[in-house]
Amino acid sequence: MTRAGFIALAGRPNVGKSTLVNAIVGTKVAIVSDKPQTTRRAIRGVATHGDTQLVLVDLPGVQRPRDALTRRMQRRVELELSDADAVLMLLSGSEGIGPGDRWIASQLEQAGVPVVLAVNKIDRLKPGQIAERLIEAAALGVGDDIFPISARRGEGTDELIAHLRTLVPEGEMFFPPDESSDQRREVVLAELVREQVLRRTFEEVPHAVEVQVEEIDESREDLTTVRARVWVETESQKGILIGAGGSMIKKIGETARKELERELGTRVHLELSVRTRRGWRGDERLLDRLGIQ
Ligand SMILES: Nc1nc2c(ncn2[C@@H]2O[C@H](COP(=O)(O)OP(=O)(O)OP(=O)(O)O)[C@@H](O)[C@H]2O)c(=O)[nH]1
Ligand SMILES: [Mg+2]
Questions:
Q1: Side-chain half-sphere of 80: how many Cα atoms within 13 Å?
Q2: Are 150 and 122 spatial neighbours (Cβ–Cβ below 8 Å)?
Q3: Which of 42, 106, 213, 237 could in theory staple to 232 by disulfide, Cβ–Cβ 3.0 to 4.6 A?
Q4: Using CA positions, which residue lies closest to atom 14 of ligand 1?
Q5: CA 32 to ligand 2 center in whole angstroms
Q6: Is residue 63 scored above 90 in pLDDT?
Q7: pLDDT digits 0-9 by tens, 83-137
Q8: How far away, in angstroms, is 150 Cα from ligand 1 center?
Q9: CA 35, CA 211: separation in Å to the nearest integer?
Q10: Which residues of the chain form CATH 3.40.50.300?
Q11: Which segments constitute the Era-type G domain (predicted)?
């Protein structure tokens, strides 16, 4: 008999949820950045080993909604958390445990779903500090098991995965064993472009950017042409992204192209155009088209 189930990731923005999902799946299914609120969609990452399939549900960091975009993100978090077989709540060992974490813990307690805690980023801590963080994590009052881990370096993740495998019920697998994610290809490619934008922008710009892939042309076997729009909210953001003489968008395009080539396994010609669309984060129809639900 096989086992299969859904483990949803909960935690504040930037604690390392997407990094951990990638580490467990063993391939990059979610983009990662040092800016909070990187993840905007629920992403199912599939890890099948032997007779057990873990479906990790990467989610946006829990936050207070400000517009249609963040309202949708927060609603998605609540839906997915209540649907999961278990919730893996991630804490940041390096930033410490605070009121945001306590709020999430209280929500999970009310939802009545089994919770596992992991304290991430222990590579930044001395052994004594790790022990302190574990005690603080235990004081949250949710989850019987607490795992110290480094999602980036893979420390402690084997023990965590072994435990997660015991939490999913007997039943049919949800995905073919060789599949790693449920995301549409357009979205995967758009996210890889957005990841490069996030690496190079600061303050309000990362939050104001979304990428939409308009066309994937595979008529040539050895070369894929990808056309993508980069949405920003203001002319000044557009100026920042294009950069002096187009230098910024050129750099973004060069590194994004390499990521797309790795993903697609062909050479890639990437065409990026930057467009201003005032208030796109409040535009329900555009959010539908972008698959942010
Ligand atoms: N030192 C260290 N950094 C980490 C570790 N895990 C993640 N990070 C870094 O933490 C930052 C945030 O990682 P993400 O995986 O994007 O965090 P997230 O929780 O998915 O964030 P949101 O999608 O915004 O909610 C990135 O700069 C990661 O490289 C870790 O184990 N150690
Ligand atoms: Mg994330």
A1: 26
A2: yes
A3: 237
A4: 16
A5: 6
A6: no
A7: 999 999 999 999 999 999 999 999 999 988 999 999 999 999 999 999 999 999 9
A8: 10
A9: 16
A10: 3-167
A11: 3-170
Q: What is the 8-class DSSP label of residue 245?
A: G
Global pTM value: 0.98
Q: What is the C-alpha to C-alpha distance for residues 108 and 89, in angstroms, rounded to an integer?
A: 9
Q: Which atom of ligand 1 is nearest to the CA of 12?
A: 25
Ligand 1 pocket test, pick from 12, 32, 77, 192 with the greatest ligand atom count within 8 Å of Cβ, gives 32
Read off the DSSP letter of residue 61: P
* Number of the ligand closest to the Cα of 154: 1
Q: Name residue 230's amino acid.
A: V
- Domain 3-167's class? alpha beta
Residues 6 or more apart from 128 whose CB is under 8 A from it? none
Which of 152, 192, 199, 207 for a ligand 1 pocket mutation test, highest count of atoms within 8 Å of Cβ?
Answer: 152
Contact 180, 45 (CB under 8 A): yes
Does domain 185-289 match CATH 3.30.300.20?
yes
Radius of gyration of the chain (CA): 20
Pairing, β 3-10 against β 43-49: unpaired
The average pLDDT across 145-152 equals 98
For the Cβ of 143 lying below 6 angstroms from any atom of ligand 1, the answer is: no
Q: What is the pLDDT of residues 167-213, one digit of tens each?
A: 999 999 999 999 999 999 999 999 999 999 999 999 999 999 999 99
pLDDT digits (tens, 9 = 90+) for 206-252: 999 999 999 999 999 999 999 999 999 999 999 999 999 999 999 99
Q: In this structure, are residues 18 and 191 in contact, taking their beta carbons and an 8 Å threshold? A: no
